[in-house]
Amino acid sequence: MTVFLQSLLSGILVGGIYALIGIGLTIIFGVMRVINFAHGDLLMMGMYLTWLIFTYLGLDPYASLVLSAPILFLWGALLQKVFINRVLGALPQNQILLTIGLGLIMSNSMMLLFTSDYRILTTSYSSSSINLLGLSISQPLLYSFLVTAGITAALFWFLQTTDTGQAIRATAQDRDAAQLMGINVRRMSVLAFGLGTALAGTAGALLAPTYYIFPQVGGSFTLKAFVVVVLGGMGSIVGATLGGVLIGVTESLGAVYVASGLKELVVYVLFLLILLFRPAGLLGKSKA
Amino acid sequence: MPSLLRRTARGFSLPAFLAYLAVILLVALVPLVTRKPLILHMWIMVFLAIAQGAAWNVIGGYAGQYSVGHAAYFGIGAYTTMMLLELHQIAPWYGIGLAIANAVLLSVVIGSITFRLRGPYFVLASIAMAEIIRLATLHFKDFTRGAEGILLNGIPPLETPWFTVDFVGKRPFFYASLGLAVLVISVNWFVQHTKLGYYFQAIREDQDAAHSLGINLTLHKNLALGISAAFTAWAGGLFALYVRFIDPNIVFGIDVSVQVVLICIIGGIGTILGPVVGSVVLVLLAESLRNPKWLVQTGLASSDSSTIAFIEAHLSNAHVLFYGILVVAVVLFAPDGLLGLLRTGVARLKKQRAAEPRPAA
Amino acid sequence: MTTSTAAILQIKHVSKFFGGLAANSDVSFDVPLGSIMGLIGPNGAGKTTLFNCITGYYPPSKGQVLFKGVAMNGLQPDAVCRLGMARTWQKVRPLAKMTVLDNVMVGGLCRTHSLKVAREVAHEQLRVVRLDHKAGFLAGGLPIGERKKLEVARVLATRPEILLLDEVMGGLNTAESEEIILLILELKKLGLTQVVIEHDMKAIMRLSDRIVVLNSGEKLAEGAPREVAENPDVITAYLGEAVHA
Question: What is the pTM of this model?
Answer without folding.
Answer: 0.87
